[in-house]
Design brief:
This protein has 195 residues and is α/β, with parallel strands linked by helices. The chain has one domain (2-194): Maf protein. It is 30% helix and 23% strand. It contains five helices and six strands, in the order βαβαβαβββαα. The protein has helices spanning 11-20, 47-62, 96-106, 173-179, 181-194; strands at residues 3-6, 27-30, 65-75, 116-126, 132-143, 159-161. A six-stranded mixed beta sheet has the order 2-1-3-4-5-6. Helix 1 (11-20) links the parallel strand 1 and strand 2 (27-30). Helix 4 (173-179) packs across helix 5. The two termini are 20 Å apart. Bound molecules: inosinic acid. Inosinic acid (IMP) is lined by residues 10, 42, 70-73, 86-87, 99, 119, 152-156, 168, 180.
């Protein structure tokens, strides 16, 4: 079976992607398992650019097929922020609690009907010969006024999914992985691989 390395040091993403792709025809392993310790600078201005930067850097370092996810939250009332800066919204080093508190502060006076947001995930599969397959997924919702739920990671306790009217942090792993932006992008990727 072909090995695919996930170009990410985020253990939450690794777990989600492995769960979603559990019946995938490739063996999906982490950078650590592949023996690579690499911090890739994400200096792109779009999810597409950053996803490619990560997938390409790791593929070139190991000479293997890679998958990268670049994702983030886009809030309408904040003109699409934090967007590609989601991980470091409140500054570096990345801190989830600070990011969530900043988001709540920025939206303090924004009424419920203006709190629309979406999670975006852009998955890039990169081959050593330079071939790339790119798939984008989005999940739509609103931003709450306080944390709800304890599952997931990042902005999950503040993101109320439109379909379930629950935050992603209130969903089980399986429930989130059935509807998330990442799941939608990976579903598309599978379709593109079968073309
Ligand atoms: P990346 O590693 O540059 O793609 O950063 C993604 C950042 O977006 C994460 O650190 C989170 O802050 C946020 N994010 C992406 N996907 C999710 C998700 O599924 N739930 C909550 N936050 C997410």
């Amino acid at each position: 079976m072909n090995k695919v390395v996930l170009a990410s040091n985020n253990s939450h993403k690794l777990k989600e992607i492995q769960q979603i792709l559990k019946d995938f025809d490739y063996e999906l392993i982490s950078m650590k398992e592949a023996g690579l310790d690499l911090e890739v600078e994400e200096n792109g201005l779009t999810f597409e650019e950053n996803s490619l930067i990560k997938a390409k850097a790791v593929s070139e370092a190991l000479n293997v097929i890679t998958i990268a996810d670049d994702s983030g939250l886009m809030v309408e009332a904040l003109k699409g922020e934090p967007g590609v800066y989601s991980a470091r919204y409140a500054g570096e080093p990345s801190n989830t609690e600070h990011n969530n508190q900043k988001l709540l502060r920025e939206l303090k006076d924004v009424p419920k009907e203006q709190r629309q947001a979406k999670f975006v995930s852009v998955i890039t599969m990169y081959y050593p010969d330079g071939k790339t397959i790119v798939a984008r997924g989005e999940a739509h919702g609103t931003i709450g006024y306080a944390y709800k739920g304890t599952q997931g990671f990042g902005y999950d306790p503040l993101f109320i999914d439109n379909e379930t009217q629950k935050t992603f942090a209130e969903l089980t792993e399986e429930e989130k992985n059935a509807i998330s932006h990442r799941a939608k992008a990976l579903e598309k990727l599978r379709g593109l691989l079968n073309d």
